Amino acid sequence: MSLLNTLHITHLPEDLQVYLSLYEEVKNAGYLQQQLLQGNSAFEYAFIDASIIAESFRRFGISPATTSLYAIKVSRTPSVNAATVQQHLSDSIEGKPLPFEESAITRFTDMTKVKKTYKLTDLGRSKVRAGGKGGAGKGEAHEDARLANGDNGKEEAERKELEMMVLGLMALRGAT
After folding, report:
1. What is the pTM of this model?
2. Which one, 7, 73, 145, 147, has the greatest CB density within 10 A?
């Protein structure tokens, strides 16, 4: 069984969707990788090792050692719909489906690897600089919010800042 989520991208026609699913305890990652490498048209998915997205793309999205997995399918025709994607994923992936929720995604993201891959080891300082000279700038207000929320607030704020930086880098790389 797959817990499939549907996402509509505004620049796609209404009848074309993006389908997302998340798995853990995947046992057949080597098989899935081989399907991608062989160009099997039934496997036109983005299978992404959930622990480090950037490295995953370099390895065709998955390695034989992958145990946590994002499955993403972009519909190119109306015949590719939630039911057909759900069935194919259920038949193909030997793993435990999870809800595609922030808590599950956060659990599988290795922040240290993400920082290293994108060369973003200096988090935190950028917010202080963003505040500008003196006064209660954005950086200081952000730091006050982190202190008020304790360590979990600090981790959450750092994760959100990292997400914004990675998305910005992806957008810049995609534009060049």
Report:
1. 0.67
2. 73
Q: At a CB cut-off of 8 Å and minimum separation 6, what does 24 contact?
A: 50, 67, 68, 69, 95, 96, 98, 108
Q: Would the pLDDT of 136 be above 70?
A: no
C-alpha span between 102 and 106 (Å, rounded): 6
**Vertex 3: Cα angle to 78 and 166 (nearest 5):** 85
The neighbouring-strand residues paired with 98 are 22
- Which phi and psi angles does 61 have, rounded to 5°? 85, -15
**Which candidate, 65, 163, 64, 45, places its Cα nearest to that of 114?**
163
Please give the pLDDT value at position 135. Answer: 41
Instruction: Give the CA radius of gyration of the chain.
Output: 19
Strands 18-24 and 5-7: antiparallel
